[in-house]
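hiii so um. not sure if this is the right channel but i have a protein structure encoded as tokens and i wanna go backwards to a sequence. like what aa goes where. can anyone help
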């Protein structure tokens, strides 16, 4: 696959909020570049908070239907970006450690983590935040920059991504049932 066609897969728990935000932003900000999203336990529909945030960013996502993360979906992607260390552990445990070479933490896919203490590398879930959408947009504005950085990295023009294979033992130290 050519670098210009590199496909990221964004993964969260239910594919109703964080992974949808990242995937939708990636497509929008990267000229409709291909991107996928999925969750371990798919919800019924996009979360109202995520839908409202995307609408404020000029993205219509009401038609999104959550997808279950599968080995086949992982195979279709060139890079897997998860929203928490626990999801990284679960991804590798359920779908194969051989995916570690293309699995990354969305919160910071460019650094080698030394610890996962105190919620480090976890992308907070706005689904459970009842602040006004405008406040959430300010807090989550960093996601816009992150998807652009990821796009550049996938094109080979940006910072080097650090895969989970570089810190596999640390990944395995996290409870995969956590969020």
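sure thing!! here u go:
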């Amino acid at each position: 696959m050519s670098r210009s066609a590199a496909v990221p897969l964004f993964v969260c728990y239910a594919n109703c909020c964080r992974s949808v935000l990242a995937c939708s932003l990636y497509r929008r900000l990267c000229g409709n570049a291909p991107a996928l999203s999925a969750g371990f336990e798919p919800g019924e529909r996009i979360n109202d908070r995520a839908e409202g945030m995307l609408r404020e960013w000029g993205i219509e996502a009401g038609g999104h239907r959550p997808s279950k993360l599968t080995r086949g979906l992982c195979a279709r992607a060139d890079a897997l970006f998860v929203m928490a260390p626990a999801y990284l552990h679960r991804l590798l445990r359920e779908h194969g450690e051989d995916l570690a070479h293309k699995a990354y933490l969305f919160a910071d896919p460019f650094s080698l983590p030394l610890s996962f203490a105190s919620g480090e590398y976890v992308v907070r879930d706005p689904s459970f935040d009842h602040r006004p959408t405008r406040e959430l947009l300010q807090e989550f504005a960093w996601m816009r920059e992150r998807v652009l950085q990821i796009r550049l990295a996938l094109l080979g023009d940006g910072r080097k991504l650090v895969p989970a294979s570089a810190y596999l033992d640390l990944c395995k130290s996290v409870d995969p049932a956590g969020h």
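oh and The mean pLDDT is 94.
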